[in-house]
């Protein structure tokens, strides 16, 4: 109980000293405030960016492999012209994979036809992303419907003139009315809208169905050459539950080499792309960014720590006479030490709280102005308290120790 009482009295003394020297306290807080604000702000910005990018990557599917001509990641000394000479995925490859693959839940052939202007009566929408896919598209992609339905198996096989459109396309073409059943002109042909994708919003990788117009692959085959490299043909394969992406990748590599009749001594003439490639790249990038933020913020906190240490030395000098009086009245050395140590730690924690408060304020303003959720991780808040406390102890321990070792008689005479 005596120790707790001394502990509380030390805290009260420290708080009173800070309150009596408001300007000095404010100036001392600046360095720590800026440092903590920089560290938490950078980490929060990085976490926000990472979460947004990761959510975009997640749309690609964690157990989905994209068979394409070009890899998403280049490595080694592989000459670019070897990639250039690779064949584009063919419908023949797709059909043979469908028949042979065992670890897949869905196999789809997809193309992207590009930006087009779409009109319906007097309304039009620019930048519509036309795409065509085989029937298993719904198995390999993640999406929901705002209204309507997906293609039936019969519509996909027959290449029926039907389409599914994004919510932004629907809003632009059919304001204040239901677009299901409406007939629009796509690729010079009349097609009927049978479904509308649920609104997703634009993500950081541009992966969104909001401005997509999806057509059955067999319909597009009657209008364009779906194997033309201009349309970026690809085969998308979604693994079954329980089949790892590594197992699926191994099976697909063997099947594609067999379909293309590649001898064991030759390299693949196709790329097996997966979301883990992008995730690994994000990990490397954000490791560097986190280190840079920690370095900049740490340097600011270090400068603030030196400032607080300097203030503490000045504080000990100013209160030498008071220290002598306290010791002459029976104050123990550890009471004096705790008094100054608490003052230093309290300065750092207050500075950290102010820095954290500024980050939360900026996050609120960003949310209100740009509708962007800033992630302030609770772990980073705990880290802020740990950093502030550590800097406070380091900055105040030497001045506090010097104060505790003062001779009471000499200290009283100092005035």
TrEMBL record:
Positions of the MacB-like periplasmic core domain: 25-254
InterPro entries (alphabetical): ABC3_permease_C (IPR003838), MacB_PCD (IPR025857), Macrolide_Exporter_MacB (IPR050250)
Highest taxon, organism lineage: Bacteria
Residues passing through the membrane, by range: 26-46, 291-313, 334-362, 382-403
Membrane topology of this protein: Multi-pass membrane protein
Keywords, ordered alphabetically: Cell membrane, Membrane, Transmembrane, Transmembrane helix
Domain ABC3 transporter permease C-terminal, first and last residues per copy: 295-408
Family per similarity comment: Belongs to the ABC-4 integral membrane protein family.
Name this protein carries in UniProt: FtsX-like permease family protein
Organism: Hufsiella arboris
UniProt lineage: Bacteria, Pseudomonadati, Bacteroidota, Sphingobacteriia, Sphingobacteriales
